Amino acid sequence: MSSPEFTFRLLAQDGGARRGEITMPRGTIRTPAFMPVGTAGTVKAMYLDQVRDLGSDIILGNTYHLMLRPGAERVARLGGLHEFARWPYPILTDSGGFQIMSLASLRKMSETGVTFRSHVDGSVHELTPERSIEIQGLLDSDIQMQLDECIRLPAERAEIERAMELSLRWAERSAAAFGEQPGKAMFGIVQGGDLPDLRIRSAERLTAMALKGYAVGGLAVGEPQSVMLETLSETLPSLPETKPRYLMGVGTPDDILQSVARGIDMFDCVMPTRAGRHGLAFTRDGRVNLKNARHAEDARPLDDTSDCPATRDYARAYLHHLVRSDEALAGMLLTWNNLAYYQMLMAEMRVAIEAGRFADFAAVTAERWARGEAQRKAAVA
């Protein structure tokens, strides 16, 4: 299904967990949803046809990387990111702010925006809220994010408040630059670090802007998981129930499971793809490190009940061999496995919410992860 307008509706709720749908011209996004990260117009080590077949309704692209290479204007001339990457379904683009803070050198912040030196070739660029939205428009993404300032935790209150207030002013400028784009949406980003009063202030002022969706940013940037979850519990009641809620850059399967329980609808993270390229598999029974020598003669697949060929059809011994031999196929197969597991987890959560048994599902899932991890530790000992 698709819709000529951007709409969100809640289909079921079980405790804090929400089952919903976002509809827009390029398709429907079933929530809770995990968005594979296609930083530079590709999900690393995967064909996008595979990504779709695993159950992905939407992928993420990155303004910072695409503005530097190959350039937003070039992508626009070539038909936009959907045509360029051969992905005709929804795409969310982030604003580039986080990457500027984490990758770029010699950056200089001002009220206007941020000037930075590219990590690719050293060239100097300026990114303002208006330019970020312009780039996302040239890429033709369906959901666009405001430019914000994301700071790492822990940080002093004065610094957290300064960045939060700047991000609010940039949200207003981003919304003005976005204007009215039928069928598309711009999301604001709640900031405020680990300080509840600042998070609530940010959420309330963004809600007053009547945006089409809201993200929680600035988490999973150095703080413990308990702080992240407490921050979500304190922040989400200040966001409207009728709009989608997106937790940026999160996370592990456990992070996602616990965040869904608190009311988050959308996620993105490099975790499953990055872990796959480094020999780590996510499974129903927890994490499996294929670098470990004890897999050298293990003929079992990662999970013989999985629908994913990478998970079901390849022996752990073979995967271990590929990882230890630094073969490209290792990253391809393990990324395939990881994204399959993430999408299976999302699908199972959606079913559990609809059936009113999310708490039981979460408990059984977490217990199975813990049991698998304990068994692996015992085997090593």
UniProtKB/TrEMBL annotation:
Entry keywords, A to Z: Glycosyltransferase, Queuosine biosynthesis, Transferase, tRNA processing
Q: Where is the tRNA-guanine(15) transglycosylase-like domain?
A: 16-369
Q: Where is the active site?
A: D94 (proton acceptor), D268 (nucleophile)
The Enzyme Commission number assigned here is 2.4.2.29
| InterPro entries with a match to the protein in the record | ArchSynthase1/Queuine_TRR, TGT, TGT-like_sf, tRNA_ribo_trans-like
Gene3D superfamilies (alphabetical) = Queuine tRNA-ribosyltransferase-like
Top-level taxonomic group: Bacteria
Q: Which GO terms describe its molecular function?
A: tRNA-guanosine(34) queuine transglycosylase activity
Q: Record's Gene Ontology CC terms?
A: cytosol
Q: Which GO terms describe its biological process?
A: tRNA queuosine(34) biosynthetic process
Provide the reaction this enzyme catalyses.
7-aminomethyl-7-carbaguanine + guanosine(34) in tRNA = 7-aminomethyl-7-carbaguanosine(34) in tRNA + guanine
Tagged with keyword Metal-binding:
no
Which pathway or pathways does this protein act in?
tRNA modification; tRNA-queuosine biosynthesis
Region annotated RNA binding, chain positions = 249-255, 273-277
Pfam families assigned to the protein according to its UniProt record, in alphabetical order: TGT
Q: Which residues bind substrate?
A: D94, S95, G96, G97, F98, D148, Q191, G218
**Family stated for the protein in its record:** Belongs to the queuine tRNA-ribosyltransferase family.
- Supply the HAMAP family for this chain: Q_tRNA_Tgt
Record-linked PANTHER family = QUEUINE TRNA-RIBOSYLTRANSFERASE
Q: Quaternary arrangement and interactors, per the entry? A: Homodimer. Within each dimer, one monomer is responsible for RNA recognition and catalysis, while the other monomer binds to the replacement base PreQ1.
User: What does the protein in this record do?
Assistant: Catalyzes the base-exchange of a guanine (G) residue with the queuine precursor 7-aminomethyl-7-deazaguanine (PreQ1) at position 34 (anticodon wobble position) in tRNAs with GU(N) anticodons (tRNA-Asp, -Asn, -His and -Tyr). Catalysis occurs through a double-displacement mechanism. The nucleophile active site attacks the C1' of nucleotide 34 to detach the guanine base from the RNA, forming a covalent enzyme-RNA intermediate. The proton acceptor active site deprotonates the incoming PreQ1, allowing a nucleophilic attack on the C1' of the ribose to form the product.
Q: Which NCBIfam families match?
A: Q_tRNA_tgt (TIGR00430), tgt_general (TIGR00449)
Name recorded for this polypeptide = Queuine tRNA-ribosyltransferase
